[in-house]
Design brief:
elongated, mainly alpha, 12 helices, about 60% helix
């Protein structure tokens, strides 16, 4: 049984590396399309991007970042007004509450600077591992994990790189399959692949570049176990 398990992991690792190499050729410069200036604005943009397109977030933050120019502006912001400022991104009440509470916590506990430690970022309201991984990777130059968004989750399941639906478990599985230097870039490349080649809506994808590496990906998968 142990041998079969090892072979299974080995096969998944080979598949993950082939996928990563193909994505590297398809999207060599893939990165976040969110527009920001500095770690705090990046954090705000990523928090706003939950259940919202990056395009819409950029539309909102263009005005938001002009209106709220530094951390103190967020700390002193009127919650109701701020809600309306970010309303187009959806779930604006909870997002507003989390962002404004995070601003206060960063000012009071972290000296006005976004922390560059995973455990400290996870203490911030509304920040889970996906957001923390993106901030660490882009703002701090630290790669401690793989940001698992809806695209990453979908492709990890589609290509049988995980059996899980929980983002933390998916992240752990992918971290075991890919070298650390691929952890951050694989997310942005899968996002780009999902946007430009293989969207979530039902379609024929048997001729897609990644599907050629694993034809079963074109089949409809049974619901994975969480």
């Amino acid at each position: 049984r142990h041998l079969r398990m090892s072979e299974s992991v080995r096969m998944r690792r080979v598949r993950a590396l082939l996928i990563s190499e193909k994505l590297k050729k398809l999207f060599p410069k893939a990165s976040t399309v969110l527009r920001y200036s500095g770690p705090w604005e990046l954090l705000v943009a990523v928090m706003l991007s939950a259940q919202c397109t990056d395009k819409k977030v950029n539309e909102v933050t263009e005005k938001l970042f002009a209106k709220y120019r530094n951390l103190s502006d967020y700390v002193e912001a009127d919650p109701r007004e701020f809600e309306q400022d970010i309303r187009p991104t959806g779930f604006y009440r909870s997002k507003a509450k989390h962002i404004l509470r995070a601003a206060r916590m960063i000012q009071e506990r972290f000296g006005g600077k976004v922390p560059c430690a995973m455990e400290e970022l996870l203490e911030l309201p509304g920040v889970a591992r996906k957001t923390a991984n993106i901030v660490l990777g882009l703002a701090c130059g630290k790669v401690e994990g793989i940001p698992v968004d809806t695209h990453v989750r979908r492709f990890a399941l589609r290509f049988a790189l995980t059996k899980h639906t929980d983002p933390v478990k998916i992240e752990k599985d992918l971290m075991e399959l890919l070298p650390r230097e691929e952890w951050l870039s694989i997310t942005f490349r899968l996002i780009e692949y999902g946007r430009s080649i293989c969207p979530a809506r039902p379609h024929e994808c048997s001729e897609h570049p990644l599907t050629h590496l694993y034809p079963k990906a074109a089949e409809i998968w049974p619901k994975a176990k969480g």
